[in-house]
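Person: I keep going back and forth on a fold encoding question. Show me how you would write down a chain together with its backbone fold. Please set it down just below, with no commentary around it:
Helper:
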Amino acid sequence: MDHVLVCATSLVSCQKAFEGPFLNSLSSIRQGGLKMYIIEDKGGAIALMLASLFFLGTWPAVLTLLERRGRLPQHTYLDYSITNLLAAVLIALTFGQLGDSKPNMPNFFTQLSQDNWPSVLFAMAGGVVLSIGNLSTQYAWAYVGLSVTEVISSSMVVVIGTTLNYFLDNRINRAEILFPGVACFLVAVILGSAVHASNAADNEEKLNGSTNIYKLGENGSVEPNKVKEKDAPKDLENGDSATKYVARAEAGTAEYLIELEERRSIKVFGSSTFIGLGIVFFSGVCFSLFSPAFNLATNDQWHTLKQGVPHLVVYTAFFYFSISCFVIGIGLNILFLYRPMAGVPKSSFKAYLNDWEGRQWALLAGFLCGFGNGFQFMGGQAAGYAAADAVQALPLVSTFWGILLFGEYRKSSRKTYILLGFMLFMFVVAVAVLMASSGHRSTK
């Protein structure tokens, strides 16, 4: 739990670091009345992107930590969905309601009654694909690891989504800078797959040389000779983890890998590598579509709105976007309680309500993701959604948490370390290049 407190501490530090440039860049100058808070300059947009980068890179680490401690992913995602929607509501009721409503930029409540359903449907479609992508990655983290999952899926967002956004944004971003950045992300995809393959080979070698205390059963199942705590609860209806162990092995060892497999809620030993990578690539396709859909919702490039109907402001679009995220997330995970995936134990709605172990961290993850997405969209509306996709360098943050919290790549081979270093280097280059391509969208 001490490691997780680092997340909360870093969150506060990040807030203070970005508070100044964020507030200074908001357009709150009185010109006949207080205007709605809209980012209008490049510096403010970049500050929002960096804040979003930290938030979006941190919430997956929180959910991964809960899964590794044995909390059912269905329970975690249900909690996460609640605060993810609450973040959008808070943004809409604060930033979206500041100042008087204007004809070309109505506030949140005014827009709710306008005939803007074509744009609303685009926003909700973006929420649907994002929710499905997030659900997929929750299982992919277990199969492939936090770092590689985020690398591949985020790079696919940039390669596919950024290209779409560039043309939807009427090329306000500098192509000669933007597309070399996209190429860097594409290289990172290839390196990410290589890192996973190399690390998987390292783990297999460790397991084959494990001690007699730990051994693998048929089909890769784990048969550890561990002493369980006498009072360890076993009833999921009481919301407690199934097993608690007295001893903890050193991170990076075969013993650690087997102990982790026993404790976690998603069992992955004996599964095909292609299953994990298949889930990752599916989630990457879903993530690639949510930002272009949101772009269409706020800018109406396809002219679906009736003449005279104002475009959705970013806060209203994000509200509808988050509603569809919430509905899909809640609906699918209630179904998964009774018909689980990936060998996860069955549960029930009663078990979910009684499961308070780790709930506070799942709720925190929802807030982090909600505000991270909101800041990304606010920055994208100002500087171009193609440039805002620089936040897809979130694997830099996720990899940091993966190494710090979970011991990923501990005691791996030199080859794995070299590939990991090149992968992270390409991300640093890519995020710098994409942010440098930022343009400016007029709000007049």
Observations:
- Residues 4-8, 14-34, 212-247 have pLDDT under 50 and may be disordered.
